[in-house]
Amino acid sequence: MNILRPSCFPEYRLEQWNSLRIQLLWAYQKKGDLPQVIDSMDYHFQSAALVIKGWAKVGVSTDAEHRADPGQWLIFKQGRRRQQFSVDCELLSIAYRFQLPTGEALYDDGLPCIFDATEAPRLEREARKILPLMARHVDAGFLRLQQVLDMRDYMLTQNALRSFLLELTAVLQVKGIHPQVMGKGNARVAQAMEMINSADIYELGKSVTNASIAKRVSLSLPHLERLMVAETGHTLYQHIDLRKLQTAQDALLANHDSMKAIAYSLGFSSPAHFNSWFKKRTRMTPLQFRRQGAFG
């Protein structure tokens, strides 16, 4: 029996919807070569996986695991998690960002979540619309940061993600998983967050600094820092640092550029400096993340 669709979806002001970060990272169907255990990795994105064969587990530890079997969706929580897959596991996996301007996931409390695919057949249909688009326009199912796409390919791919997220939101609403509250917010803080979130890998390595952002939003740095901490709970530096980490992870997942190139693009003085910075934040080296990170 199909899951009931909610009578209403969350409502926000237009500027709040415009502030959300909605980004497709990958879409693939993979079998047979999934790592059996990925222990305690930090993921700055979310993913939804339909188990086709075998099983998949996720949790913060072996004592707090959720297991999805064939025909079940597993909606992963953003942040630190432990994952395990059976030897014969086959997954349809969609990785995405559906985030507040602060980098927090819009849907967080109540995840991870497991439910039968038969409850929400439209979700699988929308997921499978993404797969051929990625196969046609994107190598290996990953959207690389520096990849050049024409407008049609980009819009088709992103629209497919939005349709998938609309169906996923309907399921989460029925399951009692609700979005985080978005306050009115300060316009200068929103402007600063937009500058950070829209910066590319080279801007993050060179021109995006505390001082440059404060100057562009026409506030003193101490004043902007006070507003930033009061509204988001984090300093300007912490937001820039998080954006750098997300960008580094995206580049590593794409498996296109060398770690040396990524390090210098992000403004690090050496690959060793990048390595220690990354390991301090994720508890693994960039190489370890690249090898295991694409299975979230």
Write the layout of secondary structure elements.
Blueprint: H1 14-19, E1 21-31, E2 37-43, E3 46-53, E4 56-61, E5 64-68, E6 72-75, E7 79-85, E8 90-99, E9 113-116, H2 121-137, H3 151-174, H4 187-198, H5 201-206, H6 210-216, H7 221-232, H8 236-254, H9 259-265, H10 271-282, H11 286-292
Helix pairs in contact: 2-3, 8-11, 9-10
Structure description:
By secondary structure, the protein is an alpha+beta fold. About 45% of the residues lie in helices and about 20% in strands. It is built from 11 helices and 9 strands. It has helices spanning about 15-20, 120-135, 150-175, 185-200, 200-205, 210-215, 220-230, 235-255, 260-265, 270-280, 285-290; strands at about 20-30, 35-45, 45-55, 55-60, 65-70, 70-75, 80-85, 90-100, 115. The strands form 2 sheets. The protein has a 5-stranded antiparallel sheet, with helices on one face. A 4-stranded antiparallel sheet has the order 2-7-4-5, with no helix packed on it. The longest helix has 24 residues, at about 150-175. The model has no long low-confidence stretch (mean pLDDT about 85).
